[in-house]
Amino acid sequence: MVEAFVLGGFPRSDNARHAMRDLDNGVLPVLEAERTIFMEELLVIGAQVGLGYRLVSDPVLSWHDLLRPFAEAWRNVAIAGLQRFFDNNFFYRVPVFRDKPDPARWVLPGRAKLYSARLPKGHGFKVVLPGPVTFTMLSDLGGLRFEDVVEEVARILGEEARRAVEVGAAGFEVAEPWLGDPDATKEHAALVRELFNKYFAGAGGEKILSVYYHPPSPEAMEELAGAKADYVAISYVDAPSKAVEALGKACPRGIGLGVINARSIYPDPVERTRKALREVSGACKESRIALTTSAPLDLIPFTEALKKLRILASHRDTVAEEH
Fold first, then answer.
1. How many C-beta atoms surround the C-beta of residue 52 within 10 A?
2. What is the pLDDT of residue 28?
3. In the beta sheet, which residues pair with residue 211?
4. How many CB atoms lie within 10 A of CB 286?
5. Can you tell me the distance from the alpha carbon of 287 to that of 221, in angstroms, rounded to the nearest whole number?
6. For residues 149 and 282, what is the distance between their CA atoms, to the nearest angstrom?
7. Which pLDDT value is given to residue 93?
8. What is the pLDDT of residues 202-260, one digit of tens each?
9. The pLDDT of residue 108 is above 70
10. Nearest-angstrom CA–CA distance, 143 and 97
C-alpha cells in the first residue's frame, strides 16, 4: 500500500464563503454559520474517507488563515493589518506581540475530539498547525527578542499538538513554509529541527513536518533530515530538480513527496508522479515515501480541490499496482 495524504486545509465552497462573510458582517447568527461550516467540513472529511485516505486532514474551513486562530487564542497577542502570505494571492492578519504569548484557550483539542469520533475504523484525523519559526517570522514582535518569542510559540504549539493527540487525533502536521522562502537560511532550518524535536517529537501520534510552495535548499534539508518526524513533506512539482538536489544532500526517514500541484487547477499527469518516485527512490533508498499535495489546497476553488483529492488518490492506487 502506497501512503498518501493532503497537506494543510481546504478552500470553502461559495455557500461556506457567504456564511463566513455574513457572520463577519453580523447578518448571520453564529450558530447558523457554524452549522454551515460544520456540514461542509464533514463533506470534505467524508470525501477523504471515501477515497481511501488513511490519514484524514482537518479541512479548517473556519480559519481565516493559518496563524489567526492561534493569535486570537493567546493573551498578549493582537492581530493587525493584512500581508501577503508568501508569493500567493492570499493574505493573512499579522500577529502583533505585546509580551510573551499566554494561551487563554486551546485551538486544536476540540476539533480533534469532534472529528476523530466521526471517522470509521481504519482512518485517523490529522490536525494542522503553523510551525513556530514561520509563525514568528511572519509576526510583528513589538521589540521582543526573536529567540524568546519563537521558543514560547513552539512550547504552546507543541502543547496544542499533544492535547489534540490525547483526545483522539491520529497525528498532526507542523507547517514551516518559511523554509521554502528565498530568505530562509540553514540556521532557520536548524532552529526548526531543534524546536520540533524539543516540543513536538514527544507529542504522540504520526508527525509530519511540511515545507511547501518551494522545496528547501540542500543546506536546509541537511538540517531537516534530523527532525524526529514520520514524514518531512516537500514540494516536488514547484521545482523538481531543486527537490531532488535537496534530497540528494540528506534524506529524512520518511518523505512526503508533493507530486500534486495544489496551486493549479490543471490535471496532474501520472507519469510525472512516476518520474518523481524514480528520482527520489534513487536518491533516498532507505526512506519511506508518501505521495502528497505540494501545499494546502486552499488556493484553488472548492470543486477543483476535490478533483485534486481524487487525482492524488488515483496516483496512489496506480503506483501501488505497479509496485
1. 13
2. 84
3. 234
4. 6
5. 14
6. 40
7. 93
8. 999 999 999 999 999 999 999 999 999 999 999 999 999 999 999 999 999 999 999 99
9. yes
10. 9
- Nearest-CA neighbor of 60 among 78, 77, 38? 38
Domain boundaries, the chain: 4-12+52-322
Q: 84 - beta bridge partners?
A: 91
Strand-pairing partners, residue 4, are 291
pLDDT at 23: 81
* Local confidence band at 1 (pLDDT 50, 70, 90 cut-offs): low
Give per-residue pLDDT as tens, 42-87. 999 999 999 999 999 999 999 999 999 999 999 999 999 989 898 8
Q: Which residues contact 201 (CB under 8 A, 6 or more apart)?
A: 207, 227, 228, 229
CATH 3.40.50.150 matches 4-12+52-322: no
CA 209 to centroid of chain Cα atoms: 8
SS3 of the chain: CCCEECCCCCCCCHHHHHHHHHHHCCCCCHHHHHHHHHHHHHHHHHHHHHCCCCEEECCCCCCCCCCHHHHHHEEEEEEEEEEECCCCCCEEEEEEEEEEEEECCCCHHHHHHHHHCCCCCCCEEEEEEECHHHHHHCCECCCCCHHHHHHHHHHHHHHHHHHHHHCCCCEEEEECHHHHCCCCCHHHHHHHHHHHHHHCCCCCCEEEEEECCCCCCHHHHHHHCCCCCCEEEEECCCCHHHHHHHHHHCCCCEEEEEEECCCCCCCCCHHHHHHHHHHHHHHCCCCEEEEEECCCCCCCCHHHHHHHHHHHHHHHHHHHHHC
**Above 80 in pLDDT, residue 323?**
no
Integer angstrom CA distances of residue 48 from 55, 243, 256: 9, 27, 17
User: In the numeric block, which cell numbers belong to residue 259?
Assistant: 507530486
